[in-house]
Amino acid sequence: xKRQLPIFIVFITGIIMVIQFFVPHAWSEFLFTYANDFVxxxxxxxxxLGIFSLMRGTxxxxxxxxxxxxxxxxxxxxxxxxxxxxxxxxxFTSPTSLLQYSFNxxxxxxxxxxxxxxxxxxxSAAYRAFRVRTWLATVLLVTAFILMLRIVPLPGPLxxxxxxxxxxxxxxxxxxxxxxxxxxVGLGGVAYSMKIILGIERGYMGRD
Amino acid sequence: MADLHSSKHWxxxxxxxxxxxxxxxxxxxxxxxAIKSFDxxxxxxxxxxxxxxxxxxxxPGDVIxxxxxxxxxxxxxxxxxxxxxLSQAFEKDVKVILTTLSQFGPAMADEIITRIAHEYGKEHGxxxxxxxxxxxxAITILAMGTDFRVPFPTDYYGTEIDSIPMMQDLxxxxxxECVISIASGNSADFWIQYGNAKYGVQVALGVTGVMATDxxxxxxxxxxxxxxxxxxGAAEYETLRGKKGDASRAxxxxxxxxxxxxxxxxxANIGYVTQRRAQxxxxxxx
Lengths: 208, 286
Description:
- The complex is a heterodimer.
- Chain A is an all-alpha fold.
- Chain A has helices spanning 4-21, 26-64, 69-85, 90-93, 98-129, 135-149, 157-171, 173-197.
- By secondary structure, chain B is of the alpha/beta class.
- Chain B has eleven helices and six strands.
- The longest helix of chain B is centred in the last third of the chain and has 40 residues, at 246-285.
- Chains A and B meet through helix 2, helix 5, helix 6, helix 7 and helix 8 of A and helix 3, helix 6, helix 7, helix 9 and helix 11 of B.
């Protein structure tokens, strides 16, 4: 019963949601909205668990390694400051609030810095990885070279020629490969969903 | 060990450049335009032109939905797109509904809409509405197809949707001309899969440079009517508008950094090919 009941619930709700997708009726829309509310409620219930997990993990790490304590302190302090700063709704819209200052002068620069560092890693990876080892690697190298070359202003007709070549690469070989991947992923998703609905795949219940 | 070192050839040096030198060259490449900037000619691609011409062809009073669906990490690349589209819409007296499906989006969306609306003398609730953020992009996009009021009963500032003059007759995607999502994550896919496929709304995307190749299949299938790829796409849009902005100013940095990467690729391959030939010759001699 402990196993059959969840499988039965998943089967019934799965079938209902599949049918609902193709029925443009007010009741169908109501059902859909109601089901979506459940998803949001479950997500909200997961939030305290996430916060607890973050705090426990940070404290444990600090206890284990004294060198980590300063980072743990920064994590907890940052978390608490953002929670306190975000308690009042007015702070969201006031450009001079602590929340906005933290967002504009801490979060944005930190995230932008991390993302910008990718450029350095990309340069290093391009230097090491793009080599004419095999003919397939050569195709990859030439394609990457042409795609990057389109950013660089080239003299006269050469620029137009590169632009046309880039367009062809994106619209023909790239699209063929991407489309095959997308269709494959789509079919895989449908197959996996069917397996869950029919009770064949039971991984979501923990160890089967 | 000494023998090994003395037998090192010039091509071995080309292949063994320390990664710190790579980083140093890259740093110099991005510092150069900061010291002395230069103009970069930008060729216009059809996918960017399509977005520009679509917005340009709208009539005063038409409504578009602009999704600020990106994180602060991609702000430099994607904010200029939002800025250009918002400015163009306000210039044409097109009304704008703003939403965000990214958790860090609200502050950025609020900043940009407030600034640009002020610049063009547009009024909140009359010329634009910022609905705010809701989690779960797929669910939010699907729910907006039923009614904007389902996921957003109030706007970002807490005003009831029904008391916003602009929103009185706007209920779902049938009432907007198009959706333009500026996205750095999978919300772009959801706009195609649910916004376009289920509800038939016209969708265009503005995405980061690395994401762009993923969305070309949807251009050919007409599930997207346009695509703005990365900072170059944003610069193209600014060029089409005839107003240089942050994207155009960022292009010199793109050019120098790309040249640096291309040079590293050339250097590594000269070293690799020469080394392979030398090894081949040595093998023949033995």
